[in-house]
Amino acid sequence: MSFTSDQAVEALRAAGEPTRLRVLTLLAGDELSVMELSRILDQSQPRVSRHLKLMADAGLIERFPDGARVFYRLSSDLAARRLVDMVLDLLEDGAADQDHVRLEEVRREREAEAAAYFEQVAPRWDQMRSLYVCESAVEAAIERAAGPGPFDRVVDLGTGSGRMLTLLGKKARLCIGLDLSQNMLNIARSNTAKAGLDKVELRHGDIFATRLPGQSADLVIVHQVLHYLIDPAAAVREAARLVAPGGRLLIVDFAPHALEQLREEHQHRRLGFSDAEIAGWLREAGLATSAPIALPPDTEDLTVTIWTATRAETAKRSVA
Ligand SMILES: C[S@@+](CC[C@H](N)C(=O)[O-])C[C@H]1O[C@@H](n2cnc3c(N)ncnc32)[C@H](O)[C@@H]1O
């Protein structure tokens, strides 16, 4: 919560260098890998790694390994956060504009690659999904975690071919599926119609800015989407924003794993998530977490986890 004077000096020294200030500014907005930082800063990976190590040793940032890659974000320690905020506040407006332009380029490239991948795999997605894990076990567990319903409004973010809607839609008065891929949405349209669901809205939209009203859904699902995203924490915040008082958010994704090939072959950015990481994001977003449900690997050494969180019944309603 607070630094000793030695720690404060070490932290200020660690921050007191031009490249390191640029890194702190970038990490204030996103978690980034060494490779991404090195591209944005136009400096070699070993050089960037040295800066990162110094700041991690001083407690300003946190490193978290993800398979063979390492990602960095600002420290969650309050004293460190206050110090970083104070230092960044002193910088003149526009000091990091160029870096933010490059960060946007990196983001856009990443999103374009993932979008092209989903447009292309859309017709095969239903078969591909079941190659990874035992779908029937996962879906039975999702149904249990969702609860018996009936639901007023179910929102499925990154709905893909609409599998979650066909699984849970019969218990809902209205289902909304949102996705960035038009090809996926077309398949979701056909799948939900075949399943006899008539109260379904399929919308083209971005999980980071859904434009859906706050606290409006009694069930929100994010199924196998987070590991593709450049800012999974922001997606969790947006998903949580939609949860109505007494409502529930289900996040279904992989536990940490080591299948590096999924990055190249299937555009995964993160190789799974730890319980602590997801629980931290859910709590920061104002939801109460339940014990995660881990579904053991089937064929591919991939454990699927269901993280459930709820908004208190009495929570103040805000529609921002
Ligand atoms: C692996 S698929 C999962 C689809 C579905 N939830 C399922 O489990 O079958 C991931 C989906 O997320 C969508 N997606 C990726 N980034 C997105 C974003 N920023 N906003 C909305 N959807 C996104 C992709 O187009 C894709 O349909």
Report on the structure:
It comes from Brevundimonas abyssalis TAR-001. Keywords: Methyltransferase, Transferase. This is Transcriptional regulator, ArsR family / methyltransferase fusion. Residues 1-102 form the HTH arsR-type domain. 45% of the residues lie in helices and 20% in strands. The chain has 320 residues and is α/β, with parallel strands linked by helices. Strands 4, 5, 6, 7, 8, 9, 10 and 11 form an 8-stranded mixed β-sheet that branches. A 3-stranded antiparallel β-sheet has the order 1-3-2. Strand 2 and strand 3 (69-74) form a beta hairpin. It is globular. The two termini are 31 Å apart. S-adenosylmethionine binds next to helix 6, helix 9 and strand 5.
What pattern of helices and strands is seen along the backbone?
HHEHHEEHHHHEHEHEEHEHHEEE
Number of domains: 2
What is the CATH architecture assignment of the largest domain?
3-Layer(aba) Sandwich
Shape: globular
What is the CATH topology of the largest domain?
Answer: Rossmann fold
Using only CA atoms, what is the Rg? 21 Å
CATH superfamily of the largest domain: Vaccinia Virus protein VP39
CATH class categorisation of the largest domain: Alpha Beta
Q: What's the count of strands? A: 11
Mean pLDDT: 90
The percentage of residues in β strands lies in: 15-25%
Question: What helical percentage do the residues reach?
Answer: 40-55%
InterPro entries: ArsR-like_HTH (IPR011991), HTH_ArsR_DNA-bd_dom (IPR001845), Methyltransf_11 (IPR013216), SAM-dependent_MTases_sf (IPR029063), WH-like_DNA-bd_sf (IPR036388), WH_DNA-bd_sf (IPR036390)
GO molecular function: DNA-binding transcription factor activity; S-adenosylmethionine-dependent methyltransferase activity
Domain HTH arsR-type: 1-102
Protein name: Transcriptional regulator, ArsR family / methyltransferase fusion
